[in-house]
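Quick one: structure for this chain?
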Amino acid sequence: MTEPFPAPDDRPPPARLAYDRHTWKEIAHLLANLPAALVGFTYVVTVLFTGLGMTVTVVGFPLLAAGLAGARWLGRAERARTRALLGVRVEEPSRLPLRSAGGFLPRVWMALKDPVGWRTMLYGAIRLPWGIVTFTVTLISLFVLWPVLPFIARGLANADRAMARGLLSPSDELERRIAELESDRGVVFDTAAADLRRIERDLHDGAQARLVNLAMGLGLAKEKLLEDPDAAASMVAEAHGEVKLALQELRDLARGIHPAVLTDRGLDAALSSVASRCTVPVKVTVDLAERPAAAIEGIAYFTVSELLQNVSKHSVARSATVDVWRADGRLLIQVEDDGRGGASLDGGTGMRGLADRLGAVDGLFVVESPEGGPTTVTAELPWRDRSGALAEEARTARPQS
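Got it. Here's what it folds into:
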């Protein structure tokens, strides 16, 4: 997660006698209520009469489940309409995790319990009388009550805004949490795939190519061993140098995957090792009485590592500091340099990638970097690993039998 911002204010300006663009959009929305309500009401009645009427047969419940799933599409269309014409920013609910539900019957049962589908059906049912009222009042006001129509339209549109927020928004905090976890899972998968591609590329272009050349060189040296011992000895010596370089490349690659010093000695020693390779003098302070979970420790290490690489490449700084401590069950990291500043989450893929990675584990990533410096990056991570948090959420959210 990135630095939190206040929610945008989607309220239009106060209504006036003059007709501005907000008033015309509200009038268009109110006039469109009737045809939209007719479509929604017809759909709801058809689904309920068909599904509930056939529940005495085998196909009744699957038909009702399919109707509830289709209601989600109606809800999406209504959210888009209210967003475009009324400026109401209603979050999209998360998709039903049908793939993880198991067989056909569990999927049907999950769809039948979908609160989003049922609330959308309720929305469609009550919209027909409301659509008739808003269409009639708005149409008459266009010809009879023209001077005060902006105020009438504002009052009716505000009722529509309340309906959309109340019935078309995600169910509750758990629903929003599911949507967030699905987004985080995508970030984790993308990050893992990118890391695997990087490892494959480094192996193919580095150590693998060098080992192939080494094998060819040793083969030639073997052929020349009897007829030209001096040339063979020279080729063996060259191969020995290639072995050292290949080992160094493999060590660097292993360090990029997970450094041994982090596993053996923890963040203090690992971050000190990273700081020693930075082109800018870095002071590292790690105040931890115990070690965090291994996954969180690894994320912290690579976050600091990439930030110090940015300091070396872009900051033009004379010094930098790294502070790591624990507060309220969270691992906090702060990297500061006295460079030229100007860093931002929108300045490139590096900072944005770090923010996404930390967001995937319920972390925070805040960049403060005015032009002229200094630059302060604060990262916050949960103390325990993400798998434990997910397991706990799944346990507490599981329905009790």
